[in-house]
Amino acid sequence: MTRETELPSGFQVQIDPTCDVDGDWRRLIGGSPTRLLTVSDRAAAMIDDDGRITVRDDGTRSLARTLLDRGVAHPRPMSGPRADEVTVVVPVRDNQAGLDRLLESLRGLNVIVVDDGSAVPLAVPDGVRLERLETNRGPAAARNRGAALADTEIVVFLDSDVVPLVEGAAARGGCGDWLAALLGHFSDPAVGLAAPRIVGLPTRNTGPIGRYEAAASSLDMGARESAVTPGGRVPYVPSAAMAVRRSAFPGFDEGLRVAEDVDLCWRMSADGWQLRYDPIARVAHDHRTALSAMLDRRRFYGTGAAFLAERHGRAAAPLAMGGSIALALAALLTRTRLGLVVAAVALGVAGWRLRARLAALPDRNRVAVRLTAQAAGNGLLQTGSAVTRHYWPIAVLGALASRRLRRLFVRIALADAAVAWVRLARAEHRIPRIDPLSFFVLRRLDDLAYGTGLWQGALTRRDPTALLPVFTR
Known about the structure:
18% strand; nine-stranded mixed β-sheet; three-stranded antiparallel β-sheet; alpha/beta; 44% helix; 14 helices
């Protein structure tokens, strides 16, 4: 059966401001992964001076859909379903206090609470439906049970340790609250899932751990809106807070106790649904503020990579880049004259291949150089992160065996944390509340914990797929 994807009249899309565009919108370079889109003269005339397209007829409808599908534009959606056409499902176990706090913020909404085998049965106020599982079956099973009981087309999943925030939700498009911001995305019939930004609960953002979690939580996908695509800038969104279209929802994999959200996003994407991340809608999470609890959670998340590799193969790779870029970076890390020569040749080959693919562009030399440099920079950042996070056991062994490798590893560890801190400051347009030294120490511990879980999962499953990089031509 053909799925309806036609955008409604009045729907708007905005070309991503980070795209490289020429003055008349005939060439767009952007998206994640980066791609080139050439636009006909007729289509370029449909784009406003500020890069916005309003759906008025078949031409603008087709152009808007193409830009969304290619990842070079973002939706400015219309009003979506009403709040009374939504069911909120809350999976919870042994967290009455968190549940009470959450339910207080959900007054007036249809709510189903699924008690996932709590030691002491949970209580809910009148008007909230309570479904109890006698044995603990995990959050995936609890969410599926709640979704099966819902009779609305849109289901919102919220964990008991989050609470929606309303301030700032009206900053774009007149959205009245966090829920309206999410529901608007479902005015696009191709969207199967929309998710808010997950930030730290303000009362928990104290002390070094709380400030680090507020700045660098693995649940926070950042301040930039994005399509959610495997291998993209936002490859998944956490199940702690997400809205789904029931007709698109295939159910969480109940065999997974970790990474079930990543698996869901990738399966829905493979099914052809569009997934959106919208940071205008914000939900606060009760972050862990004890070091041991934070690191144990990171280790637990790391174990999920092995399960994802079993189900999704190369999509779960810890490192992915072009072969020529990988060769150039490996050569540079040798810090030898020969390495510099090899790196220059490899980058030249990468640029030449890219130039050949841009034959239609009058300024293809400039564009090829810029994109090659961008790929090398992204590859360098990926490599630094992989060395200190995914491959740290190998890096440590190398550092123990060689003074030269030890110095290199220390430099990479310092540079990775420094770049992460600066990028965080730039993304938030303010200096992070955590000082650079504390950030460096906690980032290194964070990566050690995640990497430990990654190797633990791979060794337990006896499958190295989650550890293998992917190099493309």
